[in-house]
Design a protein that fits this description.
By secondary structure, this protein is an alpha+beta fold. The chain is built from 3 helices and 5 strands, in the order αβββααββ. The chain has helices at about 5-10, 55-65, 65-75; strands spanning about 15-20, 25-30, 35-40, 80-85, 100-105. Strands 1-2-3-5-4 form a 5-stranded antiparallel beta sheet, covered by helices on one side. It is globular, with a radius of gyration of 14 Å. Bound molecules: guanosine-5'-monophosphate and zinc ion (ZN). Zinc ion (ZN) binds near residues 3, 45 and 96.
């Protein structure tokens, strides 16, 4: 199995798990960009948001629906940002769909630097 996030799901690589159920797993980003930086993934391998089908709608909903609880529990009670990098243009580095939850006590800053 070459996918690093599938290996985390399988328990072959350790990760700082913060939430798990039958369909999704959330764990701390190994290289956090903000004090709170958690990744939420489907346990099923889906390459990216460009590869989802209608069958994936429930798991996508679960990933978003759990985000606020995780953010609050991890120390971002006053809001957070969700990022889903997708494909080459989206600068996705790990080809297993994931949402980033970033936050902390302070605002994370402007959305993107304008060009
Ligand atoms: P992407 O650019 O694909 O949206 O983000 C991938 C994220 O996965 C990066 O923020 C990176 O730090 C994180 N990451 C990569 N490998 C590992 C790992 O083995 N464990 C954990 N916990 N995070 C990882
Ligand atoms: Zn995978």
């Amino acid at each position: 199995m070459s996918c690093i996030f599938c290996r985390i799901v399988a328990g072959e690589i350790p990760a700082g798990k913060v939430y798990e159920d039958d369909d999704i797993l959330a764990f701390k980003d190994i290289n956090p960009a903000r004090p709170v930086h958690v990744l939420v993934i489907p346990k099923k391998h889906i390459e990216s948001l460009a590869h989802v089908s209608a069958d994936d709608t429930p798991v996508l909903g679960k990933m978003l629906a759990i985000a606020n609880r995780i953010a609050v529990e991890q120390g971002s009670p006053d809001g957070f940002r969700i990022i889903i990098n997708t494909g080459r243009v989206g600068h996705q580095e790990v080809p297993h769909l994931h949402i980033h939850i970033v936050g902390g006590p302070e605002p994370v800053g402007p959305m993107l630097k304008r060009i």
